[in-house]
Design goal:
Length: 72
C-alpha cells in the first residue's frame, strides 16, 4: 500500500503549459496520463474524474484543477 503524501510543486509557465497539453491529449485519446512529481512517477487512469475548485480567503484566491481516482 502506498504511503500518504501531500506535495505541492511549482512549475514555470512553460512547464505547466506542457503538462496541461499532455494531460488534455491523454484525456481526448482516452489514455492514461503519466507525470513525475518530486521524484515519483504517477499513473492517472483514463477513467479518473476531473474537477475545478475555487477557494477564496483573506486577500487570496486559488483555483485547483483536481484529478481523482481509486486504486483498487
Amino acid at each position: 500500500m502506498a504511503r500518504p503524501r501531500d506535495i505541492e510543486k511549482i512549475y514555470s509557465n512553460a512547464e505547466f503549459v506542457a503538462k496541461l497539453r499532455r494531460l488534455a491529449d491523454a484525456i481526448e485519446q482516452g489514455d492514461r496520463f503519466e507525470i513525475q512529481i518530486a521524484g515519483e512517477r504517477i499513473y492517472v487512469p483514463a477513467k479518473a474524474s476531473f474537477s475545478v475548485e475555487h477557494e477564496r480567503s483573506e486577500g487570496e484566491e486559488e483555483i485547483e484543477f483536481q484529478i481523482k481516482w481509486s486504486n483498487g
